[in-house]
Each structure stands twice: as structure tokens, then as C-alpha cells.
Design brief:
- 35% of the residues lie in helices and 17% in strands.
- With 527 residues, the chain is an alpha+beta fold.
- Strand 10 and strand 11 (348-356) form a beta hairpin.
- The chain starts with 8 loop residues before the first strand and ends with a strand.
Length: 527
């Protein structure tokens, strides 16, 4: 029995998990007001951009994997922007910018949220922006995690006068007030998401970017449109598990599950199970490096990568006794946020959004209050690399949005921030819930690991130390066993920012069980 430090939250009408309690409250309020999962997800997205500004916001990107209960159909709303027209590999031949104005790419998050709501929402758009506007205008109370991330990124924020004035120097419980952002959100509420890309607000954003020296122009914003696609998916232990397609690298999560399914994980010791999952991760990440890219520019052979024959081949490469050296993945620090929603009708959203690193670029676009991403840091400039920088191309994203179904009906939604850690932690939670029989809160609080492979990190310069970072709660016997197999053990008390899971499980009787990771400020709610 895994002891949990938070209760499992249960309700029959709706459930929400988000990486900030105020965003969770916004989602629950929308559901109680008669909104559906898509309304709630929009309100949560906007609220997270205010009360967790170091993780996501209007200046970032996102993916939203949705389930339409009435038709048992799933769709993915891809809200990831492209590299600006001025962003060429030649310009950045010595390496892409990782902070500051030149690290910002075109933000696509709001376009996807607006399109999802327009197609499937129930409540007025302006109503969904209300909680975010109030949080920006009246302020939210700074948490210990807020203060820690601000201190850790003090130089990044201090480099921009507006960013530093708003986010630096906050005491615990101090109110973070974002007046410029409140006015921008009011404009979005009145004019709609379209204005952000092709309207009066787009002109303000472009002017703000020009003021600080960012590459994003009015034409760049006008070129940005969300993409609506079918998810990709596999079967695992009789379940259907769906994911965001490329340019998300969620396919690596599906690959890991396909490999893991070749083993009876429930019957194995903790050390054996961890070893197999780590080795499966290493194999899948080699394919991420080969094929992770924008499919509009590169070929991503998903049919082969997710085939049974290929999973058999990869599983056969795993040495049960020795850790393999497969080109040592960086434990890249990145700050993203995740939310999930299930409503009373069984509709659901698995949503993830990000500025990339903590506080993104650190740069605010003029008087808009919009903190810009630093997603340019994800690009490669090496000729021939699948993820090589090209203007108008969407970068390879670590963001991914798992959803679990059975016979077309929703079983679970789950996800986490954490760059290269994301698919690894999602893997462990799915195995915990569906191989080991854990409830969502138990699965989220179980001890974790993340693996690093050199030369494959998400952020430039894409390095890595080859270590297996592992929480000591696994136990000394497990750590010693893994070390004896050749894993380079890096002992950790708890993984923090990269591991902030949210998960909702739907039972056959209609009960929604919601769990939230205690490793960060997230919270689950249900009614």
C-alpha cells in the first residue's frame, strides 16, 4: 500500500486537475455554471497563464487532446507556433538564443483554445476569461514555489524592466498584480482570440515585440493558425491510449508502452520493472532524435514506430541484467503546466501549455503584459537534423497529452509538465494505474525516476549526463540493484518542477477520481 499525502478527490458530476489551485477553482466554477469540459479547459488555460506565469501563458504554446462523449470521437488542437520569418539557421549558426527577446517564437496557445471553444464550447467566451481577468487585476498570492522559481531566474527577469517590476521581490503571500495583462485579457474577452493574431491586439503585440527586439512581427502572428487533427494511438493491456501527433513527441510515450507491454510488469520486482522501463525509454528516445519534427517538413514514420513488429524488435534488445549506453538525454529543465477536465457528460480535455523554461524568454511584449516564450531554445541548427531550424516550421515539442479509453469510452486523462521528463513520468503513472492497480493519487505519489541520454536534451545545446535520476523513496535495495546493472544513479529526495502530474480516472459507475501531484502547487477538485 502506497501512503499518500493528499486525499483522492472523487465526484460524480465533474473533475478538474490543474497545476495551481486558483486555476482548478476556475475550472470547477465554470462546470458548476453549466459549462462543459471545453469551456472549463479554456478558463483554466487563461487562469494558469496569470497565476502560474512562469510556466505558461498567452505568449506560449499548447496541445489539447479532447474527447467528445456523444460521438466517442477524439481530436487534438495543436496550438504551437512556428519559427518567425526572421529566424534562420544561418542567423543562429553559432547556436540559438535561449533567453531574451530573440529566444521567442510565435505563440500559438490562444489560437488552439479559441478554436476548441468555438467548435465545442457552451458558455460565452467572455465569461471564460473572467477568472483570469480578476486574477490579473486583483492579484494572486505568491507561493513558495513562485518565489523559488523567481529567485532561480532572477537574471532572466531582471533583464527586462517590465518583467522584473512585476515578478521579482515578492514575499510569501504577496499579491502579484498584472495590470497590463488584465487589460489585454479584457481585450481578448471582448474581441475574441482572433484579435491576438489578426486584429487590433496583434498590432499591439507586434509593436511590443519590436520595442524589445523580438523577431515576431504582425505578419508572423497573422500566419499562425491552430491545427485540428486526429490523435495517434495504440492499444495497451486492452486499453486504447491516445496522444498528440507530431510535432509533439508523444509518440515516444506510445513506443515506451508498446515495449513495456512485452513484459509482465506486475510480476516483476521493483528493480526489474524500473530497469525495463528505463531501457524502453532509452530506445524510444533514439527514435525521438531521429524523427521528432514538424510533419509538414519532415517524414515521421509513425506506422512503423508504433507497430507490433518494431516493438518486438526493440524489446528484444533489452538486456535484463545490464544498462545500455544509448547515446547519453539531458534532464532538461523546462517549465510547463498541465490540466485535465472531465464533465458530467463524459467529455474530457487533456491539455498542456508552456513558455518552455521558467518565465520563458523573461521578456514582456511592450505594454501588453504578455510574457514571451523561449521556445527557440528547442531548435537544432545542425544540417540534416530532423528538427533543424527553418522559418515557418514548428519546433519539436516535448509537450504531450495522454488519454486512456476502452471501447471508445473515457477511462482516464493524465499528464505532467517537465520537458524530457514528461513522457517518462506519464509512462510510470500509466503503468502504476493499469499494471499495478494504483488509484490516481497513489500513482502520482509513487517514487519516480527520469533518465538522461547525452546529446539528446530538449533545450540547446542539447547535452546530457547519462544519469538515472531517481527518488530515494524507491529504497536502498532497489537503488543498489540498479547501480549494479550499470545505471549511473543520481539520488534525489523528490523531483519537483519536472514532475507535477494531474490525473482523472473515470469508473464504470460514473465516479470521477482525481489526483494531483504534491511535488508542486497543483490541486484536484471534483463535485
Amino acid at each position: 500500500m502506497i501512503r499518500t499525502h493528499r486525499p483522492l478527490i472523487m465526484g460524480r458530476n465533474g473533475a478538474v486537475g490543474a497545476n495551481h489551485p486558483m486555476a482548478t477553482q476556475a475550472g470547477l466554477d465554470i462546470l458548476r455554471a453549466g459549462g462543459n469540459a471545453f469551456d472549463a479547459a479554456a478558463a483554466i488555460s487563461l487562469a494558469l497563464g496569470v497565476c502560474e506565469p512562469m510556466m505558461s501563458g498567452l505568449g506560449g504554446d499548447g496541445f489539447y487532446n479532447i474527447h467528445l462523449a456523444a460521438t466517442r470521437k477524439n481530436l487534438v488542437y495543436n496550438g504551437t507556433g512556428s519559427a518567425p520569418a526572421a529566424a534562420t539557421a544561418e542567423r543562429f549558426k553559432d547556436g540559438v538564443a535561449v533567453t531574451g527577446p530573440l529566444s521567442a517564437s510565435i505563440p500559438g496557445c490562444l489560437g488552439a483554445i479559441g478554436a476548441m471553444h468555438a467548435a465545442h464550447g457552451r458558455l460565452p467566451w467572455a465569461q471564460l476569461a473572467g477568472p483570469a481577468i480578476a486574477l490579473a487585476r486583483d492579484g494572486y498570492a505568491a507561493t513558495r514555489k513562485d518565489r523559488q522559481i523567481a529567485v532561480d531566474n532572477q537574471a532572466r527577469l531582471a533583464a527586462d524592466t517590465r518583467s522584473g517590476a512585476v515578478f521579482l521581490g515578492q514575499e510569501l503571500g504577496g499579491l502579484v498584480i498584472q495590470e497590463d495583462l488584465a487589460r489585454t485579457l479584457e481585450q481578448i474577452a471582448a474581441e475574441g482570440a482572433e484579435s491576438f493574431y489578426r486584429g487590433p491586439l496583434a498590432k499591439r503585440i507586434a509593436a511590443g515585440c519590436a520595442e524589445i527586439g523580438a523577431m515576431i512581427t504582425e505578419d508572423d502572428l497573422a500566419s499562425c493558425r491552430p491545427e485540428v487533427t486526429d490523435p495517434i494511438g495504440i492499444t495497451y493491456r486492452g486499453l486504447t491510449i491516445t496522444q498528440a501527433p507530431p510535432n509533439s513527441t508523444g509518440f515516444t510515450f506510445l513506443q515506451m508502452l508498446k515495449i513495456a507491454e512485452r513484459f509482465d510488469l506486475a510480476s516483476l520486482s521493483a528493480a526489474d520493472r524500473t530497469h525495463i522501463l528505463v531501457e524502453a525509454k532509452k530506445l524510444a528516445f533514439l527514435d525521438r532524435e531521429r524523427y521528432g519534427a514538424d510533419p509538414r517538413f519532415e517524414t515521421v514514420p509513425l506506422e512503423r514506430l508504433l507497430s507490433d513488429a518494431y516493438a518486438d524488435e526493440l524489446a528484444a534488445r533489452i538486456d535484463r541484467k545490464r544498462a545500455a549506453d544509448m547515446g547519453p538525454q539531458s534532464a532538461a529543465a523546462a517549465d510547463t503546466t498541465y490540466c485535465c477536465v472531465v464533465d458530467s457528460d463524459g467529455n474530457a480535455v487533456s491539455g498542456i501549455q508552456s513558455l518552455n523554461s521558467g518565465w520563458g524568454s523573461g521578456s514582456t511584449a511592450g505594454d501588453t503584459g504578455i510574457l514571451l516564450n523561449n521556445r527557440m531554445a528547442y531548435w537544432h541548427v545542425t544540417p540534416g537534423h530532423a528538427n533543424r531550424l527553418v522559418p515557418g516550421k514548428r519546433v519539436r515539442h516535448t509537450m504531450n497529452t495522454p488519454m486512456v479509453l476502452k471501447d471508445g469510452k473515457l477511462v482516464a486523462v493524465l499528464g505532467t509538465p517537465g520537458a524530457d521528463h514528461q513522457v517518462q513520468v506519464n509512462l510510470q503513472v500509466v503503468v502504476g494505474m493499469f499494471d499495478l492497480g494504483l488509484d490516481p493519487q497513489q500513482a502520482l505519489e509513487a517514487p519516480r525516476w527520469t533518465s538522461s541520454q547525452a546529446g539528446q536534451g530538449a533545450n540547446f545545446p542539447h547535452d546530457g549526463d547519462g544519469a538515472l535520476s531517481i527518488e530515494v523513496d524507491h529504497g536502498e535495495d532497489v537503488l543498489a540493484d540498479l547501480a549494479a546493472r550499470g545505471h549511473q544513479i543520481k539520488r534525489l529526495a523528490h523531483l519537483e518542477g519536472p514532475c507535477a502530474m494531474q490525473a482523472i480516472r473515470v469508473l464504470d459507475n460514473g465516479v470521477r477520481m482525481a489526483g494531483s501531484d504534491p511535488r508542486r502547487d497543483g490541486w484536484a477538485g471534483a463535485y
